[in-house]
């Protein structure tokens, strides 16, 4: 949601001057007077040269220009050869010693370059891009947070096998905006497409040696250029300007359809890896300033990827901020999901603080006020797990939600089969269902929680109910990679089976997981393909597979079409019932606008007692949500949850003001039932094993 102007002004007054200093303005190439000026920041360099290449022979240098140093460690030079389409690099010299890795013979990328071209094993070249594009008056959809439904997917994987998309557009930005994909997105009911990394990235040498590739893209080369491989062949042949134009065209068409574009951005580390790895940009420009390290030059790696960008320095933080501004305004994307966001919030002592200058600047910046900001609130360093710790204005991936929901529907049920009862009651599950108020402050509310059950990283929904353990041998690491604790349950057979009872139970488990996700308070995120039960055959870390293992299949069995119909129904019900999507937490002492008052009943229709919350033998809950809307009509819903494998008789609560309950969805149905049955308050309904049922309460 937009940050109130008063909040922007009051906090901007205390914004760190260093990060926002005008000395960092206009870094990179700016076109003017028939050429361009290149500006580069380096505090420790002794000289910087601009190297310009022939447009046809990228090994042929046509001009070398020395950059001049000015106040603020800014180096600059003008060249008439810096025109759209020009390939260029920089060479940087400087002192030797701990923390410095200068080599004046290395050709380096301009960190602010809008275009990149690979020169094979010789490395990368920056490319001057004009960026002209006609948006035709199309504006951002600006979906309110309470109506936002995220759909996380991979540009190539979503379209590579789609039969209605022309082969030339398979796996491309243009393919993602094809009418067939837009029809899928809008028919499903999602609002915002969260794309795995699209900044230009590279595959690690280790994977290349294994004959694999970095498919997910968490290995950034440049923070301003779109990944060229996801553009059409025609755009790639024309060069970076055409690649960027295709990306913008995708954004424009998705916006015309009312769909938002969220980017998964990786500012926490770069593709330069550990010391001794590639020297493509930061490492050669000012290693000491751009990467976290000890006094002796050894890297402090809190990302697990070999290096960590040091956002305790003004230059590194400003580069992140400028990259965000570019994508949000020049490219018109609608938001960002920050990979390993805890790393970005570490200070000069490498300790996380929610008041980190960069984190505050991202929230306070008027140029970013309209975009969604989603933190992955952890990294692998000391104190790295920070779920719930980011400040107002931030949304966060809620791993506590993921784990509790998986436990309730999967590992608890598995435990119950072996021990006659589940290990815990329904209390913790209810907290997550109601918006995780024990994790997010009242100031931030339930919409700070991005609820998810699966993501790109981990089992797919199908595999979560079909495998007890990971099967990652194809990754080349002897099954050592990927999470070992998945809270999954195969329901009686590992992987594929033709047992009809096991298959039916798995399908119901998927419906329960999706039902919980899409009916919980908070912002739901669906992983692409889960809406029709896509499998990765037990691989829970398929980052290195650009193949049919990771591409979405578009030919579906009847049970997959049924699952898709359930997601459609659930998203439709979420949109229609504001009680399911509160913006604030309710309070006992006053009416809170845009909150939902939540009352909890047991299977007898009686208010939940303290003992019932914790009793593992009673895992049946009735959740009555009453909206207190500001912009919509009042609304009440009743969600009945039954979390063990014995059926139960449920007495619907007799509540003042409720005339009847209309049954609108049940996880017991293989296909959503078109029939809406009505039930009197106090009447009984039968629920089968491990199931859910949603009612809308009609007023008396």
Automatic annotation (TrEMBL):
UniProt GO MF annotations: amylo-alpha-1,6-glucosidase activity
Keywords from the UniProt entry: Glycosidase, Hydrolase
Statement: the UniProt record of this protein carries the keyword Transcription: no
Stored Gene3D superfamilies: Glycosidases, Golgi alpha-mannosidase II, Immunoglobulins
Coiled-coil segments: none
Residue numbers spanned by region Disordered: 474-494, 666-688
Highest taxon in the source lineage: Bacteria
GO biological process per UniProt: glycogen catabolic process
Similarity section: Belongs to the glycosyl hydrolase 13 family.
Protein's name in the database: Glycogen debranching protein GlgX
Native source species: Microbacterium schleiferi
The organism's taxonomic lineage, starting at the top: Bacteria, Bacillati, Actinomycetota, Actinomycetes, Micrococcales
